């Protein structure tokens, strides 16, 4: 399998993967050169702000039309989920920015938390 890329990828050396005795990457930070980060700054990701969820049977879904109200699993004022590429990264609140809706982040979610 071959891959082509417009962005040159750095070559990894033995020091780039800090594995502990359990065969997993260490929990400590791996020092990086800022130039390494510059190579991924233009990679597009999908950011989503999820107001809530609802589960409905297909039969009910087929009868939904304009003016229908779907009751979500969140309460008014409860934090919404902010996802990057379908992974939860933060929580926030819906805000009004001039005549548009926006989201202000209120909490960063740590991996594994």
TrEMBL record:
GO molecular function, one term: cytoskeletal motor activity
Listed InterPro entries: FliN, FliN-like_C, FliN/MopA/SpaO, FliN_T3SS_HrcQb, SpoA-like_sf
Pfam families tied to this protein: FliMN_C (PF01052)
Any single Gene Ontology cellular-component annotation: plasma membrane
Region (Disordered): 1-34
Record key words, sorted: Bacterial flagellum, Cell membrane, Cell projection, Chemotaxis, Cilium, Flagellar rotation, Flagellum, Membrane
Gene3D superfamilies linked to this entry: SpoA-like
The Flagellar motor switch protein FliN-like C-terminal domain, residue ranges: 39-109
GO biological process: bacterial-type flagellum-dependent cell motility; chemotaxis
Protein's cellular compartments: Cell membrane; Bacterial flagellum basal body
Keyword Nucleotidyltransferase in annotation: no
Topology within the bilayer: Peripheral membrane protein
Family in the record: Belongs to the FliN/MopA/SpaO family.
Function: FliN is one of three proteins (FliG, FliN, FliM) that form the rotor-mounted switch complex (C ring), located at the base of the basal body. This complex interacts with the CheY and CheZ chemotaxis proteins, in addition to contacting components of the motor that determine the direction of flagellar rotation.
Full protein name: Flagellar motor switch protein FliN
Organism of origin: Enterovirga aerilata
